[in-house]
Design goal:
homodimer; mainly beta; Ubiquitin-like (UB roll); two-stranded antiparallel ribbon; 1 helix
Chain lengths: 123, 123
């Protein structure tokens, strides 16, 4: 349960899960499009806040990851939001480099739409 | 690592985490605004697909939850997307009832912006 009043608190107190991670939705400041969902540990969050560049925790590589460190497609953070129970983050970013967030070379990671029971359409 | 080619697959094969959940970002079809982040188990996903109404798994109440069952603020799902590694869902919805997604009575759960090191501003 959420402690009464915590939804109105103006103290940033992010809640990390048992793996020490918090999910971060990344949206494009230019058009509001959802670009990706990634995870932050406390260090990634701290570095994001300190540098203004999006940092995440890579669960597949098990390492801290500055978005764009290899690809050049970094993300400049314009605003950071948290939700009512402070267990999710929303980043409004200005994509750098190619402007694409997805490692497949697409702008957004959400490029497949469900069209049937188990059928996806590439958009 | 992601199996080569799986990013281009048109077979919907969502990957649930160890708790049997997959995160779902919910956006408003009218303006693209991010409304909330919630979690689905396989049954919530199946019911969402079958009924066209957003269903989630409540981690705090430990139960299946049809959004709006109590509040009336249900969400009609217009499109469902998955991401490059199919471990996240994006729902484009038409909010019903009051049109608010957040239990605090706000349109979006992301109503607090970080303004300092640990300071939030209600927007």
């Amino acid at each position: 349960m959420i402690a009464k009043g915590s939804e109105e608190s103006t103290v940033f107190a992010p809640i990390f899960n048992k793996q020490g991670l918090i999910p971060a939705i990344v949206i494009d400041a230019r058009d509001g499009a959802v670009l990706m969902l990634a995870y932050m540990n406390d260090e990634a969050l701290r570095l994001t806040m300190e540098t203004g560049e999006a940092h995440f925790w890579s669960r597949s590589r098990n390492e801290l990851w500055r978005k764009g460190a290899v690809s050049g497609d970094s993300q400049r953070v314009l605003s950071l939001f948290t939700d009512c129970d402070q267990d999710a983050i929303l980043l409004k970013v200005e994509p750098q480099g190619s402007g694409n967030a997805c490692h497949t070379g697409r702008k957004s990671c959400f490029y497949r739409r469900l069209t049937g029971k188990a059928q996806l359409e590439l958009i």
